[in-house]
Amino acid sequence: MTMKVLYGAGPEDTKTFDTGRLRAEFLLEDLFQPDAVSFTYTHVDRLILGGAVPVTKQLVFGTGDDIGTPYLLSAREMGVANLGGSGTITVDGQSFTLENRDVLYIGRGAKEISLSSVSGDAPARFYMNSVPAGSDIPHRLIRRSESKLLELGAEQRSNKRKLRMYIHPEVAPSCLLLMGITDLADGSVWNTMPPHLHERRMEAYCYFDLAPEDRVIHLMGRPDETRHLVVADLEALVSPAWSIHMGAGTGPYAFVWGMTGENQEYNDVAPVAVADLK
Questions:
Q1: Tell me, what's the pLDDT at 255?
Q2: Residue-range domains of the chain with CATH
Q3: Which residues pair with 190 in a beta bridge?
C-alpha cells in the first residue's frame, strides 16, 4: 500500500500555475496499478482517494500508519466502486461480491480489508473514497439496481445523462460521504452543465470507460479565472469547494463523483451562468 499526499491550493495560487503544476496539485494519474493498492491523501477536506487492481493475488490493507491512527478506518468511512470485472471485498471476515458499477459502503471501525478479482483476465478495478466519520454505520453493498436514478440534461444541449446515487441519505446512509456514478447518453459530451459551485462541499471525480485515444477536458477554477485539465481513462481529480467543475469528452465516458463537507444536500449549489465564465 502506498500513500501520496496533496496539500491543495487556493484560487489565487492557481493563477500562476502552468500545466504541470496544475496537474500535480489536482490530478491523479496512476491510481490503478496491477496488483497494488494506491492511495492519495488530500488536505482538501482530508479526503483519501484510492485505486486497486487485484490481478494475480489478493490485496490487503487497513493499517493506519500513514495517517496516525490504529487503522485506516479507525475514524473514517469509505465508499468503494467497482469499475471493472467481478470482484470480492472482505471486511473483517464479511465478504461482498461486486459487479461492475456496484458500490460498497464500509463503515467506521473496519480493521482489515481484502480485495480480489473473480478472474485475473477481467480484473476488478476498485475506486475508493474515504472521509472522516463521526458515527458508526453498518457496511452495505449497494447494487446498481438499488441506486437512485436521476435523468438529467437534454439532447439538444449535449448534456443528457443518467446520474445514479449510491451512498446518499435516500439510498444508503453515511456520516459525511456522498458517492454516485454518472453515465452520458449517446451523443452527449457535457457533464454537470451548467457549472456550479458548492462552497460547503468539495468533490472528487474519477473518469472511466474512455477509449485509449479519448480525453475529457475538465474545466475548473473560479468562474472568472478558469483553468482546465486534460484527463484520460481511470484518472481522478480533486475539485475544491471554491472551484467550478464541468467537462466535455471527445468520446463516450462515465465518471464516479464523491463529495464530503458540511452537509449531504445534493442540491445545495450555486449555479454559474455559462455566459459569466472567463
A1: 98
A2: 2-276 (2.60.120.10)
A3: 248
What DSSP designation does 187 have?
T
In degrees rounded to 5, what are phi and psi of residue 123? -70, 150
What would the grid cell of residue 26 be? 489536482
Q: Give the H or E element holding residue 25.
A: helix 19-26
Cis-peptide into 194, omega within 30 deg: yes
pLDDT digits over 181-232, tens only? 999 999 999 998 888 888 888 999 999 999 999 999 999 999 999 999 999 9
CA pair distance 278, 275, nearest whole angstrom: 8
In this structure, are residues 216 and 231 in contact, taking their beta carbons and an 8 Å threshold?
yes
* Under 8 Å between Cβ of 189 and 217: no
* Residues 266, 34: Cα–Cα separation, whole Å: 34
pLDDT, residue 173, reads: 95
DSSP β-bridge partners for residue 103: 81, 142
Is 126 in contact with 70 (CB distance < 8 Å)? no
Q: Which of 195, 185, 126 is nearest to 156 (CA)?
A: 185
CB 107 within 8 A of CB 138: yes
Rounded to whole angstroms, how far apart are CA atoms 265 and 200? 10
